[in-house]
């Protein structure tokens, strides 16, 4: 992405944008000059969600623009629609004449910024021409920081594995560390075995580009937060090879790593009073003579043995070693994020970020924050009776229980075994991808859950 996602500076000649709700339409039309009222009625303006009507001026330039607010139910079904409609306006400077505050104002303003995003690394893209003057009543500087962090997440996910292998993911983390003065340490290749990260090494050892563990640290606040992101830069499925249709999107299997890096950027750019740690096991799950096999048993960093019943359930393996490291110096809150299971998509679809947590307070704070920032999440349970499903008998744990039931829950239970000392733990099983164009969310990589977490942190609701 080469463009900058920012609001425009104040402009005395900016065209006024008037947001109109259906129940206020008659009053708005009645207040217009007769010619403009007839024009709006002739063009069928009914204040539907994101409906646009430019009011003619005396010299051919719009005298103002009406934008429909739509009904509350419509806004709930189609978030960011108004902001996207503003970004799609013809080239000019625009200023919101309707006062904005609260969640609606933030959503409209952020929707405009996110609609400016284009992934242009491999092909020139047509950029939006509309310039929105920074709206009053919302924290526009913070929204710009959030949009920039979301753009980082999108860029990382959208980049093909040829250019976004473990080495490139490390480079992205180093660039972020350099930008904000964070410390970073990387353990690579055979050093993973020497320093006791056997599962990360096992998953990545068959790839041409060496596996690694990225460890970024920033801040010295009293509250501590550790983010762990799955960085499987491409997943063939290993010897349990994926079919071609399932492999096509596997460049996004590092979406957890991309999301925690975007969230880390939000936190550092905001200057939150935190001690932040980011752990990313970065690997490729490839096929070669030294690939790990179904039926193999490996010992994790904490001494637990894991039977491999499917090499395509590799994400939980690399996360396990990273979570053990996090558990050795427990933070007040530890969060793992991963594009982990197809079962999560079956359960909640592509638009919701399902999460698991052992802390009721964090669950409530996250749900509240998610509603405020239009970043939907949904809690799934750490259902203890399913623990036996991940115990194969021949080893401590099974990486892929048979039967296919409750796959997202059993994966979360598997991960929880590696953070027994963490006081607050949450795991997000995200999709990280928009399958089709939607307002402010073009087809491709997308952040999920990060803005909700960030809002909970900003409001002091977590950790």
UniProtKB/TrEMBL annotation:
PROSITE patterns (alphabetical): CYTOSOL_AP (PS00631)
Family matches, as InterPro entries: Leucine_aapep/pepB, Macro_dom-like, Peptidase_M17_C, Peptidase_M17_N_1
Pfam families: Peptidase_M17, Peptidase_M17_N_1
A GO BP annotation: proteolysis
GO annotation, cellular component aspect: cytoplasm
Database matches in CDD domains: Peptidase_M17 (cd00433)
Cytosol aminopeptidase domain span: 310-317
This protein's record includes keyword Disulfide bond: no
Annotated GO MF terms: manganese ion binding; metalloaminopeptidase activity
SUPFAM superfamilies attached to this UniProt entry: Macro domain-like, Zn-dependent exopeptidases
UniProt KW Secreted keyword: no
Record key words, sorted: Aminopeptidase, Hydrolase, Manganese, Protease
Sequence similarity: Belongs to the peptidase M17 family.
Name of this chain's protein: Leucyl aminopeptidase
């Amino acid at each position: 992405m080469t463009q900058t996602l920012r609001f425009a500076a104040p402009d005395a000649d900016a065209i006024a944008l008037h947001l109109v709700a259906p129940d206020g339409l008659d009053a708005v039309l009645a207040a217009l000059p007769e010619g403009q009222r007839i024009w709006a009625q002739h063009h069928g303006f009914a204040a539907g969600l994101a409906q646009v009507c430019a009011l003619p001026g005396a010299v051919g330039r719009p005298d103002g623009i009406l934008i429909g607010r739509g009904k509350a139910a419509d806004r709930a079904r189609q978030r960011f629609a108004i902001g996207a409609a503003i970004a799609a306006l013809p080239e000019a400077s625009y200023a919101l004449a309707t006062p904005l505050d609260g969640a609606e104002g933030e959503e409209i303003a952020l929707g405009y910024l996110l609609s400016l995003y284009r992934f242009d690394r491999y092909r020139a893209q047509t950029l939006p021409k509309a310039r929105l003057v920074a709206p009053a009543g919302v924290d526009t500087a913070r929204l710009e920081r959030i949009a920039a962090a979301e753009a980082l997440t999108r860029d990382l996910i959208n980049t093909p594995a040829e250019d976004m292998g473990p080495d490139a993911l490390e480079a992205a983390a180093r660039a972020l560390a350099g930008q904000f003065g964070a410390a970073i340490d990387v353990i690579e290749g055979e050093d993973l075995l020497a320093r006791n990260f056997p599962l990360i090494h096992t998953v990545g050892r068959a790839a041409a580009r060496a596996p690694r563990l990225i460890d970024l640290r920033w801040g010295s606040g009293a509250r501590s937060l550790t983010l762990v992101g799955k960085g499987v830069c491409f997943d063939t499925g290993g010897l349990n090879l994926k079919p071609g249709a399932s492999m096509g999107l596997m460049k996004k299997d590092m979406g957890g790593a991309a999301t925690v890096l975007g969230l880390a950027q939000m936190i550092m750019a905001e200057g939150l009073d935190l001690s932040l740690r980011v752990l990313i096991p970065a690997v490729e799950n490839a096929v070669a003579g030294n690939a790990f096999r179904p039926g193999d048993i490996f010992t994790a960093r904490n001494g637990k043995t894991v039977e491999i019943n499917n090499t395509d359930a590799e994400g939980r393996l690399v996360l396990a070693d990273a979570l053990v490291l996090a558990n050795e110096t427990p933070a007040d809150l530890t969060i793992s994020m991963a594009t982990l299971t197809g079962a999560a998509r079956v359960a909640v679809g592509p638009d919701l970020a399902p999460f698991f947590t052992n802390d009721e307070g964090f669950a409530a704070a996250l749900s509240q924050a998610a509603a405020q920032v239009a970043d939907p999440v949904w809690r799934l349970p750490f259902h203890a009776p399913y623990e036996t499903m991940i115990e194969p008998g021949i080893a401590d744990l099974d990486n892929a229980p048979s039967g296919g039931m409750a796959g997202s829950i059993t994966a979360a239970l598997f991960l929880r075994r590696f953070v027994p000392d963490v006081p607050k733990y949450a795991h997000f099983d995200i999709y990280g991808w928009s399958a089709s164009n939607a307002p402010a969310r073009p087809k491709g990589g997308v952040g999920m859950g990060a803005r909700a977490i960030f809002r909970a942190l900003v409001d002091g609701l977590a950790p």
